[in-house]
Specification:
583 residues, alpha/beta, 19 helices, elongated
Length: 583
C-alpha cells in the first residue's frame, strides 16, 4: 500500500526530501539555544562577564534567525510536496476510473468514488505533510533534547527517559483504540454523500412528492452516524493531552526538586537546571506533536486503503497484445453467448444467444423489462465480456479489437440520456471533437433536433445545464442521437432512445436513418412495436433468451408473444411488460 501511494509523489520527490532536512536543521539550531542560555547564566550573569553575555547573545540571535529560516523553508517545501502528492493521487484515481469496465464500476458506488477523490485524498494530503514535517521534527527534537539532557546531567536525564517510555505505552494504547473508530467512519461518509447526491440530483422529484421532511431526516441520520463515531474516537483521543501534560509536569516538578538539591550540593549549576527545564518543555512539545501525527496517520490509514483499492483495481477488459485497429463493416454475430453480471451467479442473464446480423440491416429488439435487451447490446461494444461463446463485429471477435477503435465504430445511445454542462455544440462534439457547426447541424436534422434548437435564443450556442435539466426529455434524447451520429459509426444502437419522442417524430427519425445512413447497421430497442415494425428483422427477447428473430409480418404469424402485444398496442391497452412478460 505504501509503495503504491509513494509512487505518486513523482516530480515532488525533491520537495519531499528537502522538507525533513530543513526540519532537522531547525531542530538542531533550536536545541543549541538552551545550552547557550545556560552558558550566559553561569559564565556571564553569575560571573559578571558582560562581554560573554553579548557574544553568546549575538550567537543565539543568529541561531534563532537561522531556525526561523529553516522552519519557513520546511513549511514551503512541505506544502508543495503534500499538495502535489494530493493532485497526483486525484489525477491517478480519475484516470484509473476511466479505464474501468462496467463490471469494475459496479463494485464502487458513485458516492463512494466521490468520497475517495475528495475527503480521502485530503486526509492523505494532511497526513503526508504532517509526516514530512512533524514526524521528522518531533523524533529529532526528542532525540536531540535527550542527548543534551544526558550531556548536562545523566542522573536527572533518567527521569526524562522513564517519562518518555511511560508516555509511549499510553500513546500506543490510545491510538490503537482510536484506529478502530476511524476505520468505521469513512463508509458512513459514503452514506452521507449518497444521501446528498440523491437529494440534489432528484430535487424535482423530492418537491413533486413533498418529501423534503423525509430527505432531511434521512440526512440527519447519516450525519449523526458520522458524529457518533467521531465522538467515540475523540473521547479516546481526549485522554492524550491531560495524560501527557500530567506526566511531563510531574517530571518537571521532580527535576526541580532534585535539581535544587544538587545546586545546593554544588553538583549542578543554575544555568544547567534552566536548560534541563527548557529541554523538558521541548520533550513535551515533541511528544504532543508525535501524538498528533499518530492520530492523523490513524485517520488516514482507512483513507489510504480506500484510495489503493481504486488505484489497484484492474479493469476486467483489456486490449490484446496485437489488437485489430480497423472494423471492416457493421456485421454482427452472436455465437452460443452466455453472460452473467456476477461470476458466482447460478443462472446467466443471457443464455445461448445465436444471432447473425448483416451489415446495413435495421434490427429491432423488443421484450419486457428484465428480458436482457440492454445486456445483449452491451456485448457488441464490449462494455462487458461474454462468459461463454463469442460476439463478432465485422467478422472478428470483439476481444481481438483495440477497444477504442471498436467503440468509435459502435455508437450507443444509452437508456439514460446524459448531457453535460456546456453549449449544445459542446455536447454534440462529444461525438466528433473536430466536427464543424454545419456537420453538427446535419446530424441534428437527421435526429429531428434542429427544429427546436433553431427556436432557442442562442441556437446551437445555447447553454445546457448539468444533466440537461433545461431541455425536455424528448429534446435530450434527440440531442444524444445527434451526438452519436456525429461519430459516423458502422453500427448505431438506440437503447429505448426515442421513448420520450412522439410517434410522428419517431417515424421521421427512422425514415432519415433509412435514407441518409443506409450502410450503417442500426439496432433499435423499443417498447413500442410501431418503432420497430419497419425494421428488416426483429428480435423478440424473453428471460435472457431469443424467443424469435424474424420480420414483422412473419412474427405476427408465428410468434404468440409478439402478436398479442401488437394487438394490445393497437387497442391501446397494453405493452410488452403487461402482456409479453406474462407469457
Amino acid at each position: 500500500m505504501l509503495k503504491t501511494l509513494l509512487s505518486h509523489v513523482k516530480e515532488f520527490k525533491k520537495d519531499a526530501i528537502a522538507t525533513p532536512l530543513f526540519m532537522i536543521g531547525e531542530v538542531v539550531v533550536e536545541m543549541m539555544i538552551p545550552f547557550l542560555m545556560a552558558s550566559i547564566i553561569d559564565k556571564g550573569v553569575d560571573a559578571g562577564d558582560m562581554n560573554h553575555i553579548l557574544k553568546i547573545g549575538a550567537l543565539m540571535l543568529l541561531l534563532a534567525l537561522l531556525g526561523l529560516w529553516t522552519g519557513i523553508m520546511g513549511g514551503k517545501y512541505g506544502a508543495r510536496a503534500s499538495t502535489g502528492f494530493a493532485r497526483n493521487l486525484r489525477e491517478a484515481m480519475f484516470d484509473r476510473i476511466q479505464t474501468y469496465s462496467f463490471a469494475n464500476i459496479d463494485k464502487f458506488s458513485t458516492p463512494s468514488l466521490v468520497t475517495r477523490l475528495t475527503t480521502d485524498v485530503t486526509n492523505m494530503q494532511m497526513a503526508f505533510q504532517m509526516t514530512l514535517r512533524m514526524f521528522t521534527r518531533a523524533p529529532a527534537s526528542l532525540l536531540v533534547a535527550m542527548i543534551m539532557v544526558f550531556t548536562i546531567n545523566a542522573k536527572l536525564a533518567t527521569v526524562y527517559l522513564g517519562a518518555v517510555l511511560i508516555l509511549g505505552v499510553i500513546l500506543f494504547n490510545i491510538v490503537k483504540r482510536a484506529t478502530g473508530y476511524f476505520q468505521q467512519a469513512f463508509p458512513r461518509y459514503d452514506a452521507l454523500n449518497e444521501s446528498i447526491q440523491e437529494n440534489v440530483t432528484g430535487i424535482r422529484v423530492v418537491k413533486a412528492f413533498v418529501r423534503e421532511d423525509y430527505e432531511t431526516e434521512k440526512l440527519k441520520k447519516a450525519s449523526k452516524a458520522i458524529y457518533d463515531i467521531f465522538l467515540k474516537a475523540e473521547k479516546v483521543i481526549s485522554w492524550n493531552a491531560p495524560v501527557m501534560q500530567g506526566t511531563v509536569y510531574s517530571c518537571m516538578l521532580l527535576i526541580s526538586w532534585l535539581g535544587a538539591r544538587m545546586i545546593v550540593s554544588d553538583t549542578l549549576t543554575t544555568g544547567e537546571l534552566m536548560s534541563l527545564l527548557t529541554y523538558c518543555m521541548n520533550i513535551l512539545m515533541s511528544l504532543m506533536m508525535l501524538s498528533m501525527v499518530f492520530v492523523m496517520i490513524t485517520m488516514s490509514e482507512a483513507s489510504a486503503r480506500r484510495i489503493c483499492e481504486v488505484l489497484n483495481e484492474e479493469s476486467d477488459l483489456k486490449n490484446p497484445e496485437n489488437p485489430v485497429e480497423t472494423v471492416e463493416d457493421g456485421s454482427i454475430s452472436f455465437q452460443h453467448v452466455n453472460f452473467g453480471y456476477h461470476k458466482t451467479s447460478e443462472e446467466y442473464v443471457l443464455q445461448d444467444i445465436n444471432l447473425d446480423i448483416r451489415s446495413g440491416e435495421t434490427i429491432g429488439v423488443i421484450g419486457g423489462t428484465g428480458s436482457a435487451k440492454t445486456s445483449l447490446i452491451n456485448m457488441i461494444s464490449r462494455l462487458y465480456d461474454v462468459d461463454e461463446g463469442c460476439v463478432k463485429v465485422g467478422g472478428k471477435d470483439v476481444r481481438e479489437y483495440d477497444m477504442e477503435a471498436l467503440r468509435n465504430q459502435v455508437s450507443v445511445v444509452l437508456q439514460k440520456n446524459v448531457l453535460f454542462s456546456g453549449t449544445i455544440l459542446d455536447n454534440l462534439r462529444w461525438g466528433d471533437l473536430n466536427a464543424t457547426e454545419e456537420e453538427c447541424q446535419e446530424a441534428c436534422r437527421l435526429a429531428c433536433a434542429d427544429e427546436f434548437i433553431q427556436q432557442m435564443p442562442k441556437g446551437y450556442h445555447t447553454w445546457i445545464e448539468q444533466g440537461g435539466t433545461n431541455v425536455s426529455g424528448g429534446q435530450r434524447q434527440r440531442l444524444c442521437i445527434a451526438r452519436a451520429l456525429l461519430k459516423k459509426p458502422k453500427i448505431l444502437i438506440l437503447d429505448d432512445s426515442t421513448s420520450a419522442v412522439d410517434t410522428a417524430t419517431d417515424a421521421r427519425i427512422r425514415k432519415a436513418f433509412l435514407e441518409e445512413i443506409p450502410d450503417t447497421t442500426k439496432i433499435i430497442i423499443a417498447q413500442r412495436i410501431s418503432s420497430v415494425q419497419d425494421a428488416d428483422r426483429i428480435i423478440v427477447m424473453e428471460d435472457g433468451r431469443v424467443d424469435a428473430f424474424d420480420t414483422h409480418e412473419n412474427l405476427l404469424k408465428s410468434n404468440e408473444i409478439y402478436r398479442e402485444v401488437y394487438e394490445s398496442q393497437l387497442r391501446g391497452t397494453g405493452d410488452f411488460d403487461k402482456m409479453g412478460g406474462e407469457e
